[in-house]
Specification:
This protein has one helix at 5-124. By secondary structure, the protein is mainly alpha-helical.
């Protein structure tokens, strides 16, 4: 019969090595978990000490910028409204001036035509209306 002592010895060594490998894997997993917890605590601490104050300042600046932008938009709308009102008033004033000039000019033109007609009648003795220059009076 074949001597199994050597085979049994090798199988025992392989079993022991397998158990050792399993223990190393378990130990590595536990060490990895502990390292993970420490790193996360460090990251949380950095976040609390460094990032949170910076984020608070950035958010404050963004709020200020938002407020300034809103005020600028309101002022721009106000200026636009004021400019439109001013343009409307200028247009209205120009219309009034134009109407008054037309009224006074038409009165003056009427007066001058009356004086001219009176002079023509007085000097020329004509009693009727003379056609304007260039008009033939033919149908």
């Amino acid at each position: 019969m074949i001597d199994l002592a050597t085979t049994n010895l090798l199988l025992g060594i392989m079993a022991a090595v397998s158990i050792l490998e399993a223990l190393c894997l378990i130990g590595g997993g536990i060490a990895g978990f502990i390292a993970y917890r420490r790193v996360m605590r460090l990251v949380d601490g950095l976040e609390q000490r460094q990032i949170m104050p910076v984020m608070a300042r950035v958010n404050g600046i963004l709020e200020d910028v938002k407020g300034v932008t809103m005020r600028v938009n309101e002022e721009a709308e106000r200026v636009d409204h004021a400019i439109r009102d001013t343009i409307d008033r200028v247009d209205e004033t120009a219309d009034r001036v134009r109407a008054r000039v037309r009224t006074r000019a038409s009165r003056l033109v009427g007066l001058l035509r009356g004086v001219r007609t009176a002079i023509e009648v007085f000097l020329g003795g004509e009693t009727g209306h003379r056609p304007p220059a260039g008009a033939t009076g033919r149908p």
